[in-house]
Amino acid sequence: MIRFQFSVLVFLFVGFVCPALQAVDLPERDSSFSISTQEWPFQPGPRTVKVYLYYPGKELKNVNAETGLMLNLHNWGGTNTSGAGNPAVLTRELNVIVISVDYVQSGSWKDQSGAPYDFGYLQAIDALRALSHVYHALNEQKIPFNSHRIYSTGGSGGGNVTLMCNKFAPHTFTCVVDICGMPRLSDDIAYHLPGGSSLDARYSRDKSSADYLSPGAQELRFIGNPEHLKVMKKMGHAGKIVVIHGTGDTTCPYEDAKQMVQNMQAADLDVEAKFVTKSDLDGVIFKSTGHSLGDRTKMIVKYGGPYIIPGEKKFRLRQSPTDFELKQDVVYPTSDGRYVISYSNGIPAVRFEAK
After folding, report:
1. Which domains does the chain have, with CATH numbers?
2. How far apart are CA 139 and CA 151, in angstroms?
3. Count of beta carbons in the 10 Å neighbourhood of residue 55
4. Distance CA 87, CA 111 (A)
5. 148 in the Ramachandran plot: left (φ > 0), alpha (ψ -120 to 50) or beta?
6. pLDDT by residue (tens digit) across 1-58?
């Protein structure tokens, strides 16, 4: 996967771990810390993930009653903000606290072994737990912020996790911006079939293997799954979905993105697509119709900004309470059972219930 790095000053609190249910003061300046999250079956036992916080002007004191929250999620094989937006720009232009997360399997994919690629499942839970942590901490510290301005964005693998976060938390996001993310875990990507995408998620067709990809697991990871989109609509999903994808992308295939958008439109979800063609190449925002596309930070501001920036004609505020407040189960049926995302204590956990 192509990676983009931005130099960011980060203050690390070594050894500082924030339990998901324990109220912890937020750092006063841009910083990183760890939170506990859901167990990963391929590595049983307690697990933590690293969270990076970026404030407007780099300080918590600059957060105001109109400041929103934005997940900014890295690419497959990346960490922190690689392949995602530049926090210095996003915090300034959008007036948001930017939250980046080293979710499960962050870091060089080629150096990892022993498990297939998660493909947005626990990765979304990790990202949502980080968002939940910041959301609850702001409320508990009585720091004014605009809880109706909650967003997510990411590039490539981060675009996939953004879309899965939107699926797992259908009442939470005001707008999400997916940049060339994986729309589905196809057989091609799951089993690295010849002649298709270069991605290899390393799943197995062998039912006795720990790496076996069950039908339901594959159905859940299809962002454009028509039945699941109907569930989202029925639950009252009203957030804006912005999809930016190159027509020449063969890594995260354009045809998959096109189908996903068409299925979202058929389900009457509020989706807007920018499919990048050669005529869009300006050398500034768009430099390619392939997977890298160009300046992803500028894409977020240009195509997501009209819905995110107060005062813009298309600016919107989410009306519903968040899933963290509703504390309801979000349920997606599959051919072999159902997946339940529980918010019973205000933070998400996912489980599969077989038929």
Report:
1. 11-328 (3.40.50.1820)
2. 17
3. 22
4. 27
5. alpha
6. 333 333 333 333 333 344 444 456 899 999 999 999 999 999 899 999 999 999 999 9
